[in-house]
Amino acid sequence: xxxxxxxxxxxxVQGELFRCLHCGMCLQVCPTYHIYSTEMDSxxxxxxxxxxxxxxxxxxxxxxxxxxxxxxLCLGCRACETACPSAVKYGHLIKAAQMTIRQNTKxxxxxxGLKWLGFKQLMPFRERLKVLASVLWLYENSGLQSLFxxxxxxxQALRQMELLLPPISREYFNYAFPAPAIGTKRGKVAFxxxxxxxxxxxxxxxxxxxxxxxxxxEVHFPAGQTCCGAAQLHQGDLEFxxxxxxxNIDAFLDQGFEAVISNAGGCGAxxxxxxxxxxxxxxxxxxxxxxxxxxxxxxxxFMLDHLHEPPNGVVQARAVYSDSCHLRxxxxxxxxxxxxxxxxxxxxxxxxxxxxxxxxxxxxxxIVHPQTANPxxxxxxxxxxxxxxxxxxxxxxxxxxxxxxxxxxxxxxxxVLHIAEVLEESYTRGSQG
Length: 433
Ligand code: SF4
Ligand code: SF4
Prior knowledge:
By secondary structure, the chain is of the alpha/beta class. It is 54% helix and 7% strand. The strands form two sheets. Strands 2-1-3-4 form a four-stranded parallel β-sheet. Strands 6-5-7-8 form a four-stranded parallel β-sheet. Helix 15 packs across helix 17, helix 16 runs antiparallel to helix 17 and helix 18 packs across helix 20. One iron/sulfur cluster binds next to helix 3, helix 4 and helix 6.
């Protein structure tokens, strides 16, 4: 069994825990350490807490609330893993700690009900999410949104969720048929559509497909695909996450695709890293999951190697690229998006002061822990403002929504676009002459 199924008492987890040398090199990249400056809200402090459980100083069936609080405040951004000179696999450790908490504590009925609704009844069903998106589109375009925002007595939690609502685009692609290559056909790829991004920020998906087509790729949309299962997995629902993973593996495998393209850093990380780990003991799916994961490529990773049509239209902007943590620290992709963007005529790409700092999105973290996510977002916006940028470029759904909220929170209006949208804009301008 993998660590995230067995928790902190697993001998493999204990071995990993004791590789930490307490050097502290990870502290400065940790967003919660930045906010609270407390050891227990740093990676080293959290590892010390996990060791206390592993050594039996803290009993798994009597976990103190302080343990749960410090572990749950971790965003899972994994910046600490990149910074660690001892190559401690913090991602495995935090999953094991979260699993230990879930196996030994009871959640409220309300929390369980909300999770059931969001993770099981909405996210795996694109069409249901689109119905929700249509209702919210009406809300945004009927004057109700302005009314809501003027009502200052609304609960803070509701206001926080409302702020995260992006302008809903509803420019949906027709996924019934493959999208043909434009010009010379150079290959056949599949596109991982995802769930929330398709419903709420459909423009990013549409642009991704068009850029692939423009570079000679026929793009397929296997009908059996569903949500990647990242949120369900991080909530400890391994059974349901495995069900979603099986559906995706079956939908994409053995169809002659050169690659499965994901354009969301968080989904891609799950497809690449977690699927193989979910099925370590499954005689059939362990090999299938490994083959599937090897096919998955992030959009920028694939495009940089397969850019047959360089972007040719001028996009006059002073831009910053905000790394998706799961793209940078899990998939180890940080150069490719920048290299692609530097090819766009007119685009001046600035670097953020702390490019490895999370934006505070982290799945549903910004909804569950707004008191920590908001100051982290403010730090990010400080860096963006310091770069005097007028275009903010992203590569993950959660970051996209969080940073749109950031521009509103900090009253710093600017365009927030997925990297594929910026490339598409360049092509469109190029073809207009
Ligand atoms: S994953 Fe991110 S938030 Fe969690 S300890 Fe590491 S750096 Fe800090
Ligand atoms: S950098 Fe690595 S070894 Fe050093 S304290 Fe952090 S986790 Fe431990």
